[in-house]
Structures are given as structure tokens and as C-alpha cells.
């Protein structure tokens, strides 16, 4: 099966389409559950499928350290190992090197670092990152990039973006083209519109199968993030998928879809689920709160997940108070189901030419609830 994106409907700049890959189709807009080390935390593969997810994310940095890309390849690839025959996108590992690795040193060749696990030395280059993703059998591979820190001066952002561009060219040259697989370039440029435009234009010339927008949701705030999407999206090819990396809150997703983004990933819904925080149509609930101790209502009326159809808020509260592992499992599944439902609703609204109305209705529900829809990614 070939790798291509079909744009099926638009409403303003919001897009509904289908990404066709060698491992299946993905309706967009879509949210990718994060399975960093070959598993979505607290979830079986069947549980992830039950949320409505069509694509998941893995990570080069974590998988290269353990069990190693070569071992994953010997075991039949990441799809087989984690029981996920559908599409898998793998992050290149650059962000994790910068945020987790010890004693890292970056130069033109790549990044030299020591593992945060045991201190073992590694050298990650654009070519090696691409090779690792090939060994993992990633449906979508990402180029190695430098995630520009925030804040950055114009000169720092330009230097970082230009390095990412040179690494993108090397990553593209190292990518083994094959039917049904693709590689995405990553637009950088911090909060400078001209650098974002320059980055996008240069990457377009390399004819990637898709384009990611990186270096956002790193502390610049939602208003600036949306401003950068406003200036970046028009540069990206209409018939290629657009992926905003590491974003974000439900409100971030709605606003980003309105600005032409098709794909998202973030640890927020799974991390929140493990810490008793639930995303719902009425805002965010903290299930540790004593207000739920006698609450026999479902967590979120109308949600099809196990937490909502089989259990009460009081039971979920009990599980977290007793530190039972079932609590994080149920709430993680709920949060991922909520994110999938949010994107499915967005897709239907775009096709119906009522995306603005859909967003207004969703946000009104949050306002009626007792908690804000916003939540920190930390």
C-alpha cells in the first residue's frame, strides 16, 4: 500500500483527510497515543485500540537504549513486539537527548551523550537516527532535529534552524524509501516568523512525505504558539499531512486544528490519568478530591470507555485513595478516549462545515463544569 494523504474537506483552514500508509489508514485530525518505550503506559494494546486510536508513537532515544533497535528488529519489529499492526510514528530522539541525556555535546555531525540509565556513551547522527527507525520498522520516521530552546535570540534560533535543515538533508539521504512508509521533515525557527517560513520552504524542496512543526509548546504560551501556526501552515503543502509535535491540552488541539494541523501527540492525557486527573466534557476533574467520595455518577456521561460505562466517580476516587493500579489504568483509558472523541468530533464538524460551532459547544461545556480545561504538561 502506498503512503499518501487525501484531503477530503476543509472549513476555513481546518482540514479533514485520510492518511494512507502500509500499515493502514488514519482519519485526520488525529491524536497519537504516546508509547515511548514500545508501550502506552498503563495500557494493553487492546485497551489502546478500544479508545479509537489508529496510530501510536514510539521513541528512538528510549528504544535505542533498551532493548536496542537491533534487538527489536530481531524480534520482528516494533509492530509485532508491541502488538500494534497499525501505523507507528517514531520521534527521532533529538528532544529526549536534549532533555534527558547526561553530558551531551552537539556538533555538526550529531549529538554525543551518555545514557540517563547507565551512563553508556552514544553518538546519534541523522544517519544513525534514520537507521534506528528503519530497524524499528517505523511507518513514519522523523528527521533528527535540534529542538530550539525557549527563549532564544534571533541569532540562536537561526543557527539552530539551519543546523536542523542540514540534518534534515542528511536524514533524507539516509532514508530507505519503500512502499507504504514515509519520513517527515521538522520545521523549526522558534518564535520568529521569517525563520519558520525559511525552514518550511527549504524542507519542501526535499519532498518529504509529511511535515512536522517542532519547537512549540516549550514555554512560549498558547497565543504565541497559535501565531507561529498562523504563519507556518500556509507554507506547507496542502496534499501532505501536518503534524504539531508534543501538543497539548484539548483547547490547544482545537485551536491548532483551526490553523490547519492534522496530527498531534502528547504525554498529557496518559500522565494526567496516572495522577488522578480526568479530561471530561465538563472540564478537568481531580479524582483524589473528597467531593467524589459518595458520587455515584459516571465520570463523563456519554463516554464509551470502561471507566465511564462500568464504574462511578466514587469508585475511581476509591482506587486512587487506595493506590490501586486499576485507577491509573482506567483513567488513562478514559483520557485517551476523550482525546480521540474530541478529534472525531472535530473531523465530523469540518466535513459538516461547522467547525467553529463545534469548538464553541465544546468550550461551553468546559465553562459549565467545575474545572478549567487547561492543564500543565509537566
Protein architecture, described:
With 378 residues, the protein is an alpha/beta fold. The protein has two domains: 30-266, TIM Barrel, CATH 3.20.20.105; 272-368, no CATH class. Helix content is 40%, strand content 20%. The chain is built from 15 helices and 16 strands. The strands form four sheets. An eight-stranded parallel β-barrel has the order 4-5-6-10-11-12-13-14, surrounded by four helices. Strands 1-2-3 form a three-stranded antiparallel sheet. Strands 7-8-9 form a three-stranded antiparallel sheet. The longest helix has 26 residues, at 326-351. The two termini are 39 Å apart. Mean pLDDT is 95; it is low at 371-378.
Which CATH class of the largest domain is shown?
Alpha Beta
The end-to-end distance, rounded to whole angstroms, is 39 Å
Largest sheet: 8 strands, parallel, barrel
Strand content: 15-25%
Could you name the CATH homologous superfamily of the largest domain? Answer: Queuine tRNA-ribosyltransferase-like
Number of helices: 15
- In the predicted model, the low-confidence regions spanning at least 5 consecutive residues are 371-378
General shape: globular
CATH topology tier name of the largest domain: TIM Barrel
- What is the total domain count? 2
Spatial strand sequence of the major β-sheet: 4-5-6-10-11-12-13-14
CATH architecture descriptor of the largest domain: Alpha-Beta Barrel
Count of DSSP E strands? 16
Summing up helix and strand content along with how strands pair, one would put the structural category as: alpha/beta
* Radius of gyration based on Cα positions: 20 Å
What is the share of helical residues?
40-55%
Provide the residue-averaged pLDDT. Answer: 95
Amino acid at each position: 500500500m502506498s503512503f499518501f494523504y487525501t484531503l477530503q474537506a476543509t472549513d476555513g483552514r481546518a482540514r479533514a483527510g485520510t492518511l494512507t500508509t502500509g500499515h493502514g489508514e488514519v482519519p485526520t485530525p488525529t491524536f497519537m497515543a504516546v508509547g515511548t518505550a514500545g508501550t502506552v503506559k498503563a495500557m494493553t494494546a487492546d485497551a489502546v485500540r478500544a479508545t479509537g486510536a489508529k496510530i501510536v508513537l514510539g521513541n528512538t532515544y528510549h528504544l535505542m537504549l533498551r532493548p536496542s533497535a537491533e534487538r527489536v528488529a530481531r524480534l520482528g519489529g516494533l509492530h509485532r513486539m508491541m502488538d500494534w499492526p497499525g501505523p507507528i510514528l517514531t520521534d527521532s530522539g533529538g528532544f529526549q537527548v536534549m532533555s534527558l541525556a547526561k553530558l551531551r555535546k552537539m556538533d555538526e555531525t550529531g549529538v554525543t551523550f551518555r545514557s540517563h540509565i547507565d551512563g553508556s556513551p552514544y553518538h546519534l547522527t541523522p544517519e544513525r537516527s534514520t537507521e534506528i527507525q528503519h530497524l524499528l520498522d517505523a511507518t513514519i520516521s522523523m528527521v533528527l532535529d535540534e529542538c530550539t530552546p525557549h527563549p532564544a535570540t534571533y541569532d540562536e534560533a537561526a543557527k539552530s534552524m539551519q543546523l536542523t535543515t542540514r540534518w534534515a538533508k542528511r536524514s533524507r539521504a539516509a532514508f530507505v524509501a519503500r512502499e507504504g512508509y514515509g519520513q517527515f521533515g521538522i520545521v523549526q525557527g522558534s518564535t520568529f516568523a521569517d525563520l519558520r517560513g525559511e525552514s518550511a520552504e527549504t524542507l519542501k524542496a526535499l519532498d518529504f512525505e509529511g511535515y512536522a512543526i517542532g519547537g512549540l509548546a516549550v514555554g512560549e504560551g498558547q497565543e504565541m504558539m497559535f501565531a507561529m501556526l498562523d504563519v507556518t501552515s500556509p507554507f506547507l503543502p496542502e496534499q501532505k499531512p501536518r503534524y504539531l509535535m508534543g501538543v497539548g491540552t484539548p483547547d490547544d488541539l482545537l485551536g491548532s486544528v483551526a490553523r490547519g494541523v492534522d496530527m498531534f501527540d502528547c504525554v498529557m492525557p496518559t500522565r494526567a490519568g496516572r495522577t488522578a486527573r480526568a479530561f471530561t466534557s465538563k472540564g478537568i476533574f481531580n479524582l483524589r478530591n473528597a467531593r467524589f467520595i459518595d458520587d455515584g455518577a459516571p465520570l463523563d456521561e456519554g463516554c464509551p470507555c470502561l471507566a465511564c460505562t462500568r464504574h462511578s466517580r466514587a469508585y475511581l476516587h476509591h482506587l486512587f485513595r487506595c493506590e490501586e493500579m486499576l485507577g491509573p489504568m482506567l483513567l488513562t483509558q478514559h483520557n485517551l478516549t476523550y482525546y480521540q472523541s474530541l478529534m472525531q468530533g472535530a473531523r465530523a464538524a469540518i466535513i459538516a462545515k461547522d467547525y467553529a460551532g463545534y469548538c464553541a459547544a465544546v468550550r461551553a461545556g468546559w465553562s459549565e463544569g467545575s474545572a478549567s480545561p487547561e492543564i500543565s504538561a509537566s
